[in-house]
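Hi X.,

You mentioned you wanted examples for the new student's onboarding notes, showing what a folding record looks like when two proteins sit in one file. Here is a clean example. The first protein comes first, with its sequence line followed by its structure tokens.
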Amino acid sequence: MSELLKVEGISKDFDGIKALNGVAISIKSGEIVLLIGPNGSGKSTLIETITGFYKADSGKVIFQGDDITGIPSHLIYDFGITRTFQIPRPLKRMTLLENLMIAEKTAGDGIWGSFRKKWLEEEYKTAERAFKLLGFFELKDLYHHPASNLSRGQLKLLELGRALMPETKLLIMDEPLAGIAPQLAKKLLNRLKELKKIDIGLFLIEHRLDLVFPHVDNIYVIADGRIIAEGREEVLKNPEVIEVYLGA
């Protein structure tokens, strides 16, 4: 597996409060990496900094050898880094198919491109890819339904599908299992294992360790804006991790 993302000594302050303090992590292609830590530890800030919503005060974000530190979020998207949110954000009046198709850039997105024949060809290809992803997440039969008809778990799957519409290389997920039934959570995790096979890197924030732990390749623990542990089984036995995260 080749190195996909490397975060080197990222720091971020908010009004004198250090949200991130020299954070360093690494993610390889075809790897599931889990980030855990107590509330307010810096997990979300790290994601926002990697994806260009926040600008780091110091340090670097390297993606496939390119320095993408401080690049705006829409350009980060063009590099192949996509994300999902803890609370799904579908366009509820649009159908499932439309929700996926709008995530893909086509020639018709521009004024002049919409007059070119190539636009129609790209629309067909985009629809075909969207149908494949709906099938992958077992939502194909609902393609013409508005997103407002879906359950919370199905909305999570729809958001995953939308995040995979471009040529995704790194998928970042903020609590993908939050608020969904264990059976559907296991289905979602099985889909993530399938994504590993095609070398997509996966970076998760997740609190439901009992469900996600068997599927991850590496774990980072963050507390007070710094990484305090890395590994797998040994992480949960680390005295510092037990103190700050498990509360015992």
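Then the second protein repeats the pattern, sequence line and then tokens:
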Amino acid sequence: MNFIRKIKRLLESIKILYYDTNEDSIGSIGQNVTIEYPIKCNRPHNLIIEDNVVIRSGAVIILHTGRLIIRKNTMIAQHLTVVSGNHTTHPPINQWQYDAILDSSKDQEQDVIINEDVWIGVNVTLLCGVNIGRGAIIGAGSVVTKSIPPYTIAVGNPCKVIKYKYNLEEIISREKTLYNEKERLSLEKIQDIFNQQKQKR
């Protein structure tokens, strides 16, 4: 049984490395989407792309039950890596980490979400369950392990917010200009973003 699991894992790894995703295999794709090939995704039916999205070449997207959701008006630079799952970091005392990873029964899977108006720099990695807030910028080479608030600039490994793109009044104005009333962030939500960042400093 353990041998069969190893073979399945090996075949999945090969599929991830050599699977070249085409637009017909993607779960949902909007209008005016540009994908520069190669892009590799082992489960393209779990890939959701909205309108006006650009994905530059070299993306590797590793999904199992989790999805990658890319909202509208988003730009993604070369060599994005997305991993929707995470192996257990606390295997049973009597089990090797190697066996726990092969077993996969304690793996975690969560959607990775890139919201509207996001710019992701080159060589960025997004890990299990992260949510990139609308209007955010993720700097080149960043490894994102936790969700990033809207309208912030975040960089590093692990990725952390370093500043806001706009002040409070500018964000309110931008929301009114670019989004209809139902889509806008509430004033309370915008203020909450600023308050949370102040508390972290």
